[in-house]
Amino acid sequence: MTSPLQQKIKITGPSVVTANRTWDGIVIWRTAAQGWSAELSDAAVVRTADDARALLAESVADDVGAIGAYIAPVDVRDTGTVKPGNLREHIRSAGVTIDLPVPA
Amino acid sequence: MYAYDELDRTLINERVSEFRDQVKRRLSGELTEDEFKMLRLQNGVYLQLHAYMFRVAIPYGTLSSEQLRRLAHVARKYDRGYGHFTTRQNIQFNWIKLAELPDALADLADVGIHAMQTSGNNTRNVTSDQWAGVAPGEIEDPRIWSELLRQYTTLHPEFSFLPRKFKFAITASEHDRAAIKVHDIGLRLYKNAAGETGFEVLVGGGLGRTPFIGKTIKQFVHGHDLLSYVEAILRVYNQYGRRDNIYKARIKILVHELGIEKFAREVEEEWLQMRDSALAIDDAVIEDIRSRFTYPAYEQLPHMPDELKKAAHDPHFEAWRKNSTFPHKVPGYAIVVLSLKPVGGPPGDATADQMDAIADLADRYSFGEIRVGHEQNLALPHVARRDLPALWKALDKIGVATPNVNLVSDIIACPGLDYCSLANARSIPIAQELTRRFANHDTANLIGRLHVNISGCINACGHHHVGHIGILGVEKNGEEFYQITVGGRADEKAEVGTLIGPAVPYGEVANVVEDIVEAYLALRARPDELFIDAVKRLGVEPFRERVYATR
Amino acid sequence: MPLVRGGKIAADAFVHVADDAEMPDDGAILISAARFLGEAEALSRRAGRTGVSWPNDRDVDDLVPWLDRLAVVALVFPNFRDGRAYSQARMLRERHGYRGELRATGQVLRDQFVFMLRAGFDAFEVRKESDAEAFAATVKRYSVFYQPTGDGRITALHRRMQLRHSENAGQ
Question: What's the total number of domains in chain B?
Fold first, then answer.
């Protein structure tokens, strides 16, 4: 298996690092305070490949706390609000696009 | 039903305790994720988009009411109140917490349910005909052999780290409801001229990115030799299957690259060296397993009881009876299919409340037994025909009596991008839209048998290759697109569908399917020429033309 | 890397000799398959015991003529997900009757011990100290086995048969 750190890192715009929390699996984002948050709005946004690499490196180093960390695109609105950059990330942050069989 | 004995129970409990220890070591950091991943997969635990997903085995698709109630309990206590039945006689829970998984497994183990090898590069849940033991004309109950194989493949010391996953399916009927031709090993049970039970063995079938229909490797393997022959196949595969490329690691690629004749020779050579080993099965062993399957004490009942005659005046009941009940080997009884494909619902999902209700109905009307089929529906396998009207009312109340079994809205779909980390596109909303388009049962009946299968990516969990109409989600420049195939089928005449043209965008899929169906209705030779037969006769061209002429 | 032998952590008597290193005249050595097959004659004149490390993509049939001269066959798990050496182990033990030490090497982790024992391994170069220490407890985890292998553990199927016979006998 190629470690995420050995893969070539290319970003095309503002990005965040996201993963799932080990003990319960929920979606989390890496914060600027070297921690994790379940809110995308808390995520550290990076804009260069070097910064993305550094953020990913510290994220991957937390093997106990999080799994499957990777870089994901985001849109930063004029207001500064951070939104998921594609459908997959939208679904991860907002949930399924269908009605669940049992309302939450 | 198969009754676990003390040994089966002990093994499952030992497995739960091992996994509890593995989870503990993972959460403490003693195990890295790289080390843990295969261990969790071997117990059916995936990481999906939102959470861990937990896949539980329902060997050969047979459940007791007690077991179904326990699945409902797991859905309620550890998940979000529902589960998803898959195409391989498994159930998946989408929101499970790793830290709670050992407890969920222990709760399931109490009733003889496990999640061993529902994922990972090992032999997966052995699947079979969901009507095994009750289908008219069946040669013998294939579940006895399925159970033998289940035991043989469970925690196999040699084959727990194969190049890739490995799936068995068994049928014992003329009509293949277990899709054996798209499995790594497909077994067709029959009796030879001497009246001995044995198997036609197929190998190398599979879907995914390179679909293959399984090829016959040996025309007749005697039942006594089943395990040694299977071991020979697995050993050849374990040694020579490719491990350099995950996409070329399935046995179908090895069979394809070597050619079936050479592969068969390798297997034969290996097999001859061990057919008389401890793997040879004597009749007493088979009888022992057979004796632990219990069958209902059927009554002598009329084929046309008064209850049924009276209910025939209700067109809703009649529509359901004609669509969802099937002949049983015992007169006076019926097999009842419970559609998990309500209009507008996600295919294959059942809520905990529905599961509990179905378990109660199984106790009342089906000797406490439930079946799970690869079409993602359930069945009550032993219903007295006199009980059909009452059962229908109860099923209708809980939303599992949609009379669309085998019709266009009885869609097989994978979870797709709404849940799955591998998916490129969504499957469920496409299926939901199609069920709304074809919600009119008269229209659906007019169309007749038509299987629509949807996968959200090339891994083909939604069996799109073998759908009469297949829909495959792909991603193009960040947008969801769908490739459409026609002419696939998964039964004894299994075939891979043919692509009709360029992929269409998300919003167009339902329109395209409607166009294909309209073209079929206009072109079919007779009202009883099925869609799949019309495609066989006409080829893809008329459908391509109809779909792309205006697009 | 700790070696587990005879069920407990033990000293490794075998010196791993690289392909380009000089062969010692005596003492126990473990060498590569290529070197072993290339110098089989010279090796047979050695006073010390010889072991060979056999890769998992080479047919064990090539090793069969030499099995009675070998004190150790070391099979390799390049990573624990690569299960070819399980087949090799069973072939050596069950088909070719190899009775010397059969050693698991490479990424050998606790969670594979039971499989390895059942396939015929009796020595383990364990990656982690903590796994080696847990060996005795780990291999007791299972008491029920469904498959017959050369390790002689009785299978569930046969235990059932025995139970059935004894029940019948008691009637």
Answer: 4
